[in-house]
Amino acid sequence: MTVVENDNSDLYSYKYPHPAVTVDCVVFGLDDGALKVLLIKRLDPPFEDSWALPGGFIKMDEDLQDAAFRELREETGVAQLYLEQFHTYGRPGRDPRERVITIAYFAIVNLFEHKLSASTDAKDVAWFPVDGLPALAFDHGEILRDGLAALQYKVRRVPLVFEFLPQKFTLPQLQQLYETILREALDKRNFRKKLAATGVVDALEEHQTGVSHRAARYHVFHRELWEKKAEEGEEFKI
Amino acid sequence: MTVVENDNSDLYSYKYPHPAVTVDCVVFGLDDGALKVLLIKRLDPPFEDSWALPGGFIKMDEDLQDAAFRELREETGVAQLYLEQFHTYGRPGRDPRERVITIAYFAIVNLFEHKLSASTDAKDVAWFPVDGLPALAFDHGEILRDGLAALQYKVRRVPLVFEFLPQKFTLPQLQQLYETILREALDKRNFRKKLAATGVVDALEEHQTGVSHRAARYHVFHRELWEKKAEEGEEFKI
DNA sequence: CCAAAAGTGTTAGAGATACACCCATGG
DNA sequence: CCATGGGTGTATCTCTAACACTTTTGG
Q: Whose CA, among A33, A78, A172, B128, lies 20 to 30 Å from B13?
């Protein structure tokens, strides 16, 4: 028998088991042209000195997604990001200390518009390329793989990629991002045709500067238009 | 402060909140040609006499999916079914008693091969057509809608429909089931063409009997072949 | 003027859709 | 022989995939 902080006490608290519940986040960012994942080095046992997904225990009066936002803000200084729940993991024994159930989210951080703040400069937070990951604590390796699969799946159907990019981006930049996430080469002309068909990317007059070749045109994502189309049931397919 | 049953006691049990955790199941079955959902009438407050999704508290040493199986067996007598996790709900206040986080599964019961046993004959368990649902307890209405969407989504990509049907079924029966789930009419010839293209449904020589019109041929789902194809990354599309 | 990457259309093939008549069975 | 639903093929269209050259810029 264990004493826990639980203010909503009533009969049920006596009758039923109360496991610990955490949220863990697979945070993706585009760093130096590569798809990277944010990991945190654990300072305490278990898995001391191992890398792990950012996350932590939910508070009693906090929604699940709010908990994910809070943990990311606390641990990484990231404030604005895209968040989506993808799976819940609860195998007994996945945490050697006690029963812990974790609700996993994947997140996208825009590293162009939100440089990581103070807390991320600490030596225990780092971005790892998805094809060069260290061994992870707990079952975080499995969670990370599932999160990557969820990102790859979703990115084909919903215009998520713009969460990675600056407001103004070039089409080659966008295509490279898709190729990075999906791990496959795309045909330039067909890619642009499909993109044009979605109708949610507008060309600006402005061009790239400072490149030693033809300058690419900047484009912007027309978010409001997409949201209107999404409401009408329109799909986004790349 | 509350005392709970928790044998894995250690330092973390003191420091972090421990909410109650349940699994809830949206159980679908094909009953009398209609898509129905299994609901349970609550006998105790809160929401006394309201209908609710079957489900219940997880045990401390039990995997999430095992908990879902156990609850369904206990509450409905259903032993063999398809189960898939689709979302986790944890809004504070969703249960008026205390903080309860619920991991939601959708399930498919084969009512041809597994008639519901004793416990389901009790007056407090019933099948409701998905377009004639009563008001549900807690946020179960929302969970049910999401579960139905998950079923509709999944059924187009994975051969789940066979979970609803007897081992031998006719093609009109199969098509009607798709139409029921997807709520749209399908072209008979095109439907059969697509189905043939998947290659996982075999025709038998045997025909339907006792109908006052041309008898339909029985077919079977070739599950092993599908599993082999699925491993090779093949998709199922209807 | 050279190197490097941006930009741009057409054609062929595959897959999806629309569509109408004959067949078998029981009453 | 009638009513009911089972069973079958083709033509069109749309979407996808393959593919090569010209343009712009900086050095």
A: A78
At B131 the pLDDT is: 94
How much is the mean pLDDT over chain B?
91
**What tokens does B116 get?**
């519901």
Residues A52 and A34: their CA atoms lie apart, in Å, by 20
**pTM reported for the whole predicted model:** 0.93
Whether the per-residue pLDDT at B12 is higher than 60: the answer is no
- With 0-12 / 13-18 / 19 or more C-beta atoms within 10 angstroms meaning exposed / middle / buried, residue B212 is exposed
Query: Does residue A229 approach strand D to less than 7 Å at its CB?
Result: no
**Which of B7, B14, B21, B85 to probe the A interface (max A CBs under 10 A)?**
B21
CB within 8 Å: A5 and B14: yes
Contact B97 A10 (CB under 8 A): yes
The CA-atom distances, in angstroms, between B121 and each of A110, A157, B30, B32, B127 are 55, 44, 17, 17, 11
Distance between CA atoms of B236 and B162, rounded to whole angstroms? 13
Yes or no, beta carbons of A19 and B14 under 8 Å apart: no
Instruction: Note the pLDDT of residue B217.
Output: 98
Contact A1, A81 (CB under 8 A): no
- Find and list the nucleotides of strand C having atoms within 7 Å of a protein beta carbon: 3-10, 16-20, 23-27
